[in-house]
Amino acid sequence: MSISTPYDVYMAPGKSRSCTILLMVRKNIHHIFTYLSHCNMKPLIIYLTTIITLLNVKPMPKQDYTISFLVNQSPEQVFNAVNNVRGWWSEQIDGPTDKLNAEFNYHYKEVHRCKMKITEFVPGKKVVWLVVDNHFDFTKDKTEWKGTQIVFEIAKKGDKTQLTFTHIGLVPAYECYNICSDAWGNYINGSLKALIETGKGKPNPYIPAINSAETLKGGQHD
Fold first, then answer.
1. What is the pLDDT of residues 51-65, one digit of tens each?
2. End-of-domain residue from the set 18, 33, 55
3. How many domains does the chain contain in total?
4. Containing structural domain, residue 47
5. Neighbour-count burial of 112, counting CB atoms closer than 10 A to its CB (0-12 exposed, 13-18 middle, 19+ buried)
6. How does residue 110 score in pLDDT terms, banded at 50, 70 and 90?
7. Which CATH number goes with the domain that contains 188?
8. Same domain for 87 and 50?
9. Are the beta carbons of 134 and 114 closer than 8 angstroms?
10. Dist. CA 42–CA 25, nearest whole Å
């Protein structure tokens, strides 16, 4: 069979070239679509979607990091705890964290800095942050989180409340994935859940205060 059209390239049976391309599409379809969406290449997205439909290729399931838990508290209590970011993520937060379109900055030593914008704020139901800017000191791409979204979804499940946390764009292909997913697991399942259930979370401490205390302590020994 001669390959004369783009469709033939994907569909030619028994051709190693077509098999290779098909496997590539199957394996990387989610990343391909994400990249093309960012590049605003809608015609190519439509073209690829048509090919996938003809081949009956199912897109890879989303790989965004997600985690959830159930608590006895009400959706309103969970919502209020989520927005008390200093109470579960870090005491070193600058800016408001509890209203639509607000922007705030997170800073942990020189390891991680980021700027968030609250793009959705639905009381008792949902909060979404957009990562406006980001800096890591441990990855090649220092801005890896930039453009990703952090989503908190709250829903009643029987007599309990479920919180589902999803970091849209934080996928295994990211260099920071293992470190960041582990950290989110600790903050969400550990600190935020504790804040909801006991009123006290386990946020990062306020570093300047610690440094000042250490300086004062050192001065007392002079």
1. 666 656 555 566 999
2. 55
3. 2
4. 6-55
5. buried
6. confident
7. 3.30.530.20
8. no
9. yes
10. 17
Can you tell me which residue has the tokens 């920071």?
176
Under 8 Å CB-to-CB from 162, ≥6 apart: which residues?
Answer: 68, 69, 70, 154, 155, 156
Tell me: do 97 and 178 sit in the same domain: yes
Q: Which pLDDT tens digit goes with each residue over 64-94?
A: 999 999 999 999 999 999 999 999 999 999 9
Burial class (CB in 10 A: 0-12, 13-18, 19+), 209: exposed
Whether the pLDDT of residue 222 is over 70: the answer is: no
Beta bridge partners of 30: none
Task: Determine, yes or no, domain membership for 78.
Answer: yes
What CA–CA distance (Å, rounded) separates 20 from 22? Answer: 5
3-state secondary structure 110-143: CCEEEEEEEEEEECCCEEEEEEEEEEECCCCCCC
Q: What is the pTM of this model?
A: 0.69
Separation of alpha carbons 57 and 55, rounded Å? 5
